[in-house]
Amino acid sequence: MSIVTLFVDTSDEKVSSERRFDKSLTISQLKDKLEPITGIPYSTQKIDLYQGNTLQGPIDDDERMLGSYPVEDYMRIHVTDTNPHRVKNQYTDVSLVEKFELTEDEYQKRTDTVRAFKERNRLGRFSSEAAEQEKAIEQARKEAASNIKVGDRCEVLGDDYTAQRLGTVRFVGETKFQPGPWVGIQYDEPLGKNDGSVNGERYFTCPPKYGGFVRPTKVNVGDFPEDDFSMTDDELEEM
Q1: Distance between CA atoms of residues 120 and 163, nearest Å
Q2: 0.70 cut: is pTM over it?
Q3: Integer Cα distance of 155 and 169 in angstroms
Q4: Could you tell me if 192 and 124 are in contact, meaning their C-beta atoms sit under 8 angstroms apart?
Q5: What is the C-alpha separation between 218 and 123, in angstroms, rounded?
């Protein structure tokens, strides 16, 4: 199963969230999942794919799979409502209503919110089990990152933790696209997703499709010689 992490937003800016989707989803199935996220009915969704602010093109064939489009981690899906009759008026336009807004700090201090209820009752991500698990994962990532340095040769593990790709470490540290430590890899072959930059932020430089970012726990450093792809078959046989 291949999973891609995408940002989802809408034209009215009411929705902006990070979601994970299976690339094997058809666009029809994707629309079903986007409807409760965006509030836009399946039948009137127009989906566009962006890399940062650069339009990559429409996602418009209901029968195609999501993975058949050039989707990469941390790209953006922009959903537009094409229904011309869904017009706001003085009774439905919430922009005409005076909004009650709270800062994040003010929200955290309130005791009558869903978040406060979950915290009091230790539910969901506030449960002791979830907190301990998250703490253990974060500690493991930090420990793994401390043993990785720029210039190290490495192998990158897949989701099943078997070795899949060889490369060289080009970046170790925090990023803007997600919290926690990440390792930037320049792969030996064009098996990556970027050129060392994500959403317009550059972390290292390498040829397009040779760069990728993975969690430190999926990187093994060691003596992994780089394959010489320029050698002929005859030269390889002589070695």
Answers
A1: 43
A2: no
A3: 10
A4: no
A5: 30
Boundaries of CATH 2.30.30.190 in the chain?
Answer: 148-221
The ranges of the chain annotated as CATH 3.10.20.90 are 3-81
Q: Using pLDDT thresholds of 50, 70 and 90, give the confidence band for residue 144.
A: very high
d(Cα 164, Cα 41) in Å, to the nearest integer? Answer: 40
CATH fold of 3-81 reads: Ubiquitin-like (UB roll) (3.10.20)
Q: Return d(Cα 78, Cα 13) in angstroms, integer.
A: 10
Cβ atoms of residues 8 and 38 within 8 Å = yes
For 177-208, what is each residue's pLDDT tens digit? 988 999 999 999 998 989 999 999 999 999 99
Nearest to 143 by CA among 203, 215, 206: 215
Task: Kindly state the average pLDDT of the residues 65-79.
Answer: 92
Q: How far apart are CA 35 and CA 42, in angstroms?
A: 6
Nearest-angstrom CA–CA distance, 213 and 171: 9
Q: Are 227 and 164 in contact (CB under 8 A)?
A: no
Among left, alpha and beta (phi > 0; psi -120 to 50; other), residue 4 is beta
Q: 148-221 belongs to which CATH class?
A: mainly beta
Residue pair 74/56 in contact (Cβ under 8 Å)? The answer is no
Helix-then-strand count for the chain, H and E: 5, 12
